């Protein structure tokens, strides 16, 4: 653009605006590209142009205009921010819906499947523990016919001992006749020799005083109570309702059921025969 003979555009536009060819422009040393020579010559010929061109005056600026520009800029930025916030809100709502749908699916489907899986794993673990207990009972313990007996040194009350035998896939020892009683007495005696420790048997009169039942609920028909002129058994009445075997002679004694002592489990090994 040229004003009063001064050009502020690039060289090509300068040339066009001022009526010079590019070649003519190159001959003028001043890089400001003032259209001084041709215009001054033309106007000087008319006598209305001074010898020295005045300095270009700067565009007048108004404080009010600057304020309006700043105000408009702030308004436009606020509008942009408002639009961005709206997009964020839409995105947040969409994400919230998806999370809600996912949680709904988890509660309706996955939890049920997970519970089934946990039940299966728990049952599988119990079965494995029973099988391992049965194998241990017959490998470490004393075999007699299809039964295997094993002494455990963990001190338990009667109920705890019964529970442990069941968890191992067996049950508390239940000698049903003289032959089983004598075999069991020999095994327990050799296990604790030379000591003498009582071990729980699966025999009690918890249901009715004097009515002795095995731990599986069947009735006891053979007994090996201690007979001694100083302390014949059973002598505990309603206070002592669980039966233990002495390891030195195999005799039976009635005891408090909450007493902690060693216990004897038996395992069915019919599958191995
Ligand atoms: Ca009793």
TrEMBL record:
Record keywords, A-Z: Disulfide bond, Lectin, Secreted, Signal
Compartments in which it is found: Secreted
C-type lectin domain segment(s): 144-266
GO biological process: ossification
CDD domains: CLECT_tetranectin_like (cd03596)
Presence of keyword Membrane: no
Alphabetical list of PANTHER family matching this protein: C-TYPE LECTIN DOMAIN FAMILY 11 MEMBER A, TETRANECTIN-RELATED
Stored Gene3D superfamilies: Mannose-Binding Protein A, subunit A
GO cellular component: extracellular space
GO molecular function: carbohydrate binding; growth factor activity
Membrane spanning residue stretches: none
Protein name per UniProt: C-type lectin domain containing 11A
């Amino acid at each position: 653009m040229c004003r009063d003979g001064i050009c502020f555009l690039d060289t090509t536009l300068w040339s066009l605006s001022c009526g010079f060819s590019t070649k003519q422009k190159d001959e003028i040393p001043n890089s400001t590209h003032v259209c001084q020579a041709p215009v001054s010559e033309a106007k000087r010929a008319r006598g209305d142009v001074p010898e020295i061109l005045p300095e270009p005056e700067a565009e007048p600026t108004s404080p009010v205009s600057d304020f309006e520009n700043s105000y408009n800029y702030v308004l436009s930025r606020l509008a942009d921010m408002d639009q961005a916030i709206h997009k964020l809100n839409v995105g947040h709502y969409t994400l919230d819906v998806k999370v809600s749908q996912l949680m709904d699916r988890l509660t309706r489907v996955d939890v049920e499947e997970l519970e089934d899986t946990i039940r299966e794993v728990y049952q599988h673990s119990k079965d494995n523990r029973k099988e391992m207990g049965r194998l241990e009972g017959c490998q470490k313990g004393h075999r007699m016919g299809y039964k295997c007996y094993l002494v455990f040194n963990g001190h338990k009350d009667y109920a705890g001992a019964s529970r442990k035998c069941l968890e191992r896939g067996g049950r508390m020892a239940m000698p049903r006749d003289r032959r089983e009683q004598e075999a069991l007495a020999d095994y327990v005696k050799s296990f604790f020799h030379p000591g003498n420790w009582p071990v729980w048997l699966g025999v009690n009169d918890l249901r009715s005083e004097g009515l002795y039942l095995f731990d599986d609920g069947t009735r006891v028909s053979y007994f090996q109570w201690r007979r001694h002129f100083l302390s014949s058994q059973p002598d505990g009445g309603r206070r002592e309702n669980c039966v233990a075997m002495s390891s030195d002679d195999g005799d039976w004694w009635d005891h408090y059921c909450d007493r902690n002592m060693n216990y004897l489990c038996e395992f069915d090994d019919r599958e191995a025969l």
